[in-house]
């Protein structure tokens, strides 16, 4: 159930979100992202934190599809643009590497019915545990990306079979 939005429209959109997602989006809207150093920034302990990254997008073939179990992602592009590949969990997805127990991420060799969502500066995608996503895919632009991923811990996270 991925949600796509634009941070400048947050006032009109935010009532549709849970309080925790609203808090994460408000952080993105009110924080001077350009001044943040790359790395982890605590918002609310391990319940919510942001990871700032600067990178060049790569071809889709070079990027791995992934999913999480314990955290919702808000993938926010501050500058540059990328495609975010999106699909749902499927029994047809082959597991490439399962790091759920250690790092809350599972990587897939392939995905079923993956679509590309363009995230340009100011756009975000809320990605839930049932969403497989492939971040950092090139749109053809050679611009460096500054991205923030806000991680929101699910209160009722419990191990599920992702294989």
Secondary-structure blueprint:
Blueprint: E1 3-6, H1 10-13, H2 19-30, E2 39-44, E3 48-55, E4 65-67, E5 71-79, E6 81-88, E7 95-98, H3 100-103, E8 106-108, E9 115-120, E10 123-127, E11 131-137, E12 145-153
Antiparallel strand pairs: 1-10, 2-3, 3-12, 4-8, 5-10, 5-12, 6-9, 6-11, 7-8
Order of helical and strand elements: EHHEEEEEEHEEEEE
How confident overall, as mean pLDDT?
Answer: 93
Quick one: CATH superfamily? YhcH/YjgK/YiaL
Please tell me the total number of domains.
1
Short description:
By secondary structure, this protein is mostly beta strands. Helices cover 12% and strands 44% of the residues.
Summary keywords:
163 residues, mainly beta, Jelly Rolls, 3 helices, 12% helix, 44% strand, globular
Question: Could you walk me through the main structural features you see in this protein, from its secondary elements to its overall organization?
Answer:
The structure is a single chain. This protein has 163 residues and is mainly beta. It has a single domain (3-153), classed as YhcH/YjgK/YiaL (Jelly Rolls, Sandwich), CATH 2.60.120.370. Helix content is 12%, strand content 44%. The chain has three helices and twelve strands; from the N terminus they run βααββββββαβββββ. The protein has helices spanning 10-13, 19-30, 100-103; strands spanning 3-6, 39-44, 48-55, 65-67, 71-79, 81-88, 95-98, 106-108, 115-120, 123-127, 131-137, 145-153. The strands form three sheets. It has a six-stranded antiparallel beta sheet with strand order 1-10-5-12-3-2, with helices on one face. A hairpin with a 3-residue loop joins strand 2 (39-44) and strand 3. The longest helix is centred in the N-terminal third of the chain and has 12 residues, at 19-30. It is globular and about 40 Å long. The mean pLDDT is 93.
